[in-house]
């Protein structure tokens, strides 16, 4: 799995007087942002740049400490005998062996030598502390994590001066089951160290740990594999098995699904597992094929998914329309796909059920697609408290227009009946009207409604495309304060990117309005944002982490805050659920009350 050694590109290791050049180059970089040509390895200069951009201090060390790290998990278990063996070989030498998780947080440290251990403690290179680049700048652990390559960093190559006495080599450990970074293994000693030898040691240790990770595949993964193998016997179908951080696909599924489809599929399985109800849904893949997806839960958190094409390759290609064309903010694949799919349905006047959590932008999306195709035609939004029958009749006189039935699940019985009649009428009408019915995710719909709305699309919650917050914020600010120069400062943006946005874009807009009431010009700062934005986890959640967090919240709500029952429901240990609740900063009403 390890394919590249970071120092190899320049073939350079320094010794003697050369290290003084590096120290001078670092000074020069800190003052001017530039480095004299060829004095420092390019990978190190890149890392210095990243460290500077992250605002890391170069004369001080301040790594954050994490209490609830997974020190009994599969990685620690897999690494323990490998570290034991190496520790015995190195015995009393002033050398330390370190294992970190995928975030660069120390899970295990082996060091026999007393004064060396005290020095490591003094620079916080100890269990629980994070040596990610964004916290301490260029160092073996953090830089290997960023580059996913074996990395040696010695002496003044470290960004922060307190690390200049050290040399370290680190290798990334890839989980062979998921293909993702599982952690990092590091060897640290006094500078200058021996780059090639230290790198060879960690490279071999990482390989041994990866082999053990494979052997230690969890019970859940084994069950999933069995389910996958059983499903594969039905030849001709595309099969994907999905679990925490793990996806297996047969050849047909690999051919059928683009990488962005995998991400959507994983999200969808998580949602379906949480909702517990539906077992078959339709989906339009990113290359345009319409498929039916059937899924069988294997364990509370995993499922085997069978995918079949519903109508062969699609005749209507998905239009190449991006959110920006529709004047919507967002560049993520998930959001861009929904925009393009809705536009495709508008092209063929296919009536759509548009589902999604409150505030995800369902009506905004329908309006944007309508304006792209027929801005001069009427756009009518019918809500539950309106004269539904009257407004439906009026819409018949608006050919080419768009009618949005907003939250159709909340229409009273007589309004629903009026809507059904009206949908039947327009189905026979030559003058087309495009209908988009919006609904909350999982809401109960009248039985005969889905038959009248042939396409269903799901607008993802904001936390599933959290990166779009970067575009949404300036877009919303410019709508709220036209002509005023207010922007969002980088610190405040980091807070916004960490938030979970239960009320989605509506919530984000609310938070920005709150901030604007405090800061009328200049840059919005974290303290301008409402309290709710700050009650978040410790880092920007990855896509999968946010799915995991949602699953835990769902289980807690279902079990009325009973953590043990929620852990059972999810098939994880009680200790794990406590750790994850703390890590994600989950504070539902139920968790607060205990
Ligand atoms: N991608 C986007 N770009 C810019 N603004 C957006 C975007 N998505 C949503 N908004 C804005 O967010 C707000 C909420 O959107 P909207 O009312 O369409 O959500 P909704 O899902 O229909 O909500 P509800 O479920 O409450 O009816 C609106 O002010 C809308 O303009």
UniProtKB/TrEMBL annotation:
<protein>
    <submittedName>
        <fullName>Fis family transcriptional regulator</fullName>
    </submittedName>
</protein>
<keyword id="KW-0547">Nucleotide-binding</keyword>
<dbReference type="InterPro" id="IPR009057">
    <property type="entry name" value="Homeodomain-like_sf"/>
</dbReference>
<dbReference type="GO" id="GO:0006355">
    <property type="term" value="P:regulation of DNA-templated transcription"/>
</dbReference>
<keyword id="KW-0805">Transcription regulation</keyword>
<dbReference type="InterPro" id="IPR002197">
    <property type="entry name" value="HTH_Fis"/>
</dbReference>
<feature type="domain" description="Sigma-54 factor interaction">
    <location>
        <begin position="328"/>
        <end position="517"/>
    </location>
</feature>
<keyword id="KW-0067">ATP-binding</keyword>
<dbReference type="InterPro" id="IPR029016">
    <property type="entry name" value="GAF-like_dom_sf"/>
</dbReference>
<dbReference type="GO" id="GO:0043565">
    <property type="term" value="F:sequence-specific DNA binding"/>
</dbReference>
<keyword id="KW-0804">Transcription</keyword>
<dbReference type="Pfam" id="PF00158">
    <property type="entry name" value="Sigma54_activat"/>
</dbReference>
<dbReference type="InterPro" id="IPR058031">
    <property type="entry name" value="AAA_lid_NorR"/>
</dbReference>
<dbReference type="GO" id="GO:0005524">
    <property type="term" value="F:ATP binding"/>
</dbReference>
<dbReference type="Pfam" id="PF25601">
    <property type="entry name" value="AAA_lid_14"/>
</dbReference>
<dbReference type="InterPro" id="IPR027417">
    <property type="entry name" value="P-loop_NTPase"/>
</dbReference>
<dbReference type="Pfam" id="PF02954">
    <property type="entry name" value="HTH_8"/>
</dbReference>
<dbReference type="InterPro" id="IPR002078">
    <property type="entry name" value="Sigma_54_int"/>
</dbReference>
